[in-house]
Design brief:
Length: 88
């Protein structure tokens, strides 16, 4: 089993006015997004979806975007397999 190389991405949040759902997205990952009734649920769902998006990139031998620069805001970290097509 290979060691993982974590990638950290900034998350954007908004609240849907009609449903009240929390909408979250990761701009760096092609605005991969999801929603949930709470921040925690929305982030849980986003983490799963983002992992699937990265898996698809790897299967298609596409580069995985580099981590976002840390700053203010909310970030999530995803583990990647050691041998991946990483962006420069």
């Amino acid at each position: 089993m290979s060691k993982a190389q974590p990638r950290t991405y900034r998350v954007e949040f908004e609240t849907d006015r009609e449903s009240g759902m929390i909408v979250v997205s990761i701009p760096t990952l092609n605005f991969t997004g999801d929603f949930g009734p709470t921040v925690e649920e929305a982030l849980r769902r986003l983490r799963k979806l983002a992992a699937g998006y990265i898996e698809t990139l790897l299967e298609e031998r596409e580069p995985v975007p580099a981590s976002d620069a840390l700053g203010s805001g909310i970030f999530i970290t995803l583990a990647l397999p050691r041998k991946t097509a990483l962006s420069r």
